[in-house]
Amino acid sequence: MIVLENLLKPFFSISTLLSTIVMVIMVNVFKREEAMEIQKTYNSLWSGFEILLFALVGKLTMSIMLF
Fold it and tell me: Among 1, 13, 48, 66, which residue carries the largest CB count within 10 Å?
């Protein structure tokens, strides 16, 4: 998406985030079963990343408080 955006930037501007949102909506509309499988996969991945995120934020907060 970013490569496509960079190629088309001289002609017109495309927001990568906006295009990603549109792709997700299109997958939800036309391929509902596949969208549900993708959602299950990312939900399980999110659980692990959520733990990592809050651990890193906690570590950063403790580092800031020590200074």
Answer: 1
Give this prediction's pTM. Answer: 0.44
Residues 67, 36: one domain? yes
Amino acid at 9: K
CB atoms within 10 A of CB 32: 9
**Domains contained in the chain, number:** 2
Q: What tens-digit pLDDT sequence spans the chain (67 residues)?
A: 678 777 777 776 667 777 888 888 888 888 988 888 888 888 888 888 889 988 988 887 877 776 6
In angstroms, the CA 39 to CA 45 distance is 10
Same-domain check for residues 37 and 59: yes
